[in-house]
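Quick one: structure for this chain?
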Amino acid sequence: MGSGPGQQPSISPSGCNSSPPQSYLIIGAGCFGAATALQLARSDPSSASNITLLDRTPSPCPSAAAHDLNKIIRAEYTDPFYMRLALEAMDLWKSDPIFSPYFHQVGMLLPTTLEHASKIAENYTSITSQPAPIELIEPATAKERFGGIFRNAYLDKVETCLFSPEAGWGDAENAFQNVIKSAIALGVKYVPHAVDKLLFDETGHSCLGARTITGLDLRAQHVILCTGANTAWLIANSAPDKPTLQVGDRMVAAAAIMGAYRVPTEQMGKFDFAPIVVNPVGVTPGLSYP
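Got it. Here's what it folds into:
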């Protein structure tokens, strides 16, 4: 990597040019921020001490989405881009010691159309050059399978049920905490302060860092925003006179409604092998985790 303006390249003992360590300020220690810090630290452990992970509370921040909602781990997407990413992620969930203890491979049932299922199968074959590891089940059969827990399910408009034994769910909160702990163990600094505004240079074109509500200035060569729904407010508060920086309609905040059902003790055995259900049928699609 070349030197910036006014910088001289450092010389290693062997006489070879080497770049100075890069510094990173990652604002927001949710799923994206924590994973970014971990990946940077893993890719260059010698520079981990130059990575700062900043969030409003001690780890983990309770407002982070990964703190309170488990995640479905699956690769059954009609978009090849998402499927490719998901397959890579599933390999990590199954093999990486940071994630694998928190992955529960219970399978997934997807009530859908034949066209949708066919597209998923085509993507699998195109990406992996292997047959898709999925099974198509008649809706009536799906109702009686899995201990009959879906026997009263509304599947009237469903053409087929795709079952993926490879899918499962991730224990998001514990995996999330382990990601942060692992990053800190590698040398990443965690700073529990809320951000007041971003800091820019005199031209207003380069972000230098951030100022916390306590007046602490944190600076780095690279500033990465992983601030979720707070992003629009933070930029507006930091650079109100720069319309090109504003989020505008480039980002939309969204939310999901979550409910929990406590199964009676005498019924618990029926759910020992219950799969995840991803049901896109109807005006209100839904998901369920066992």
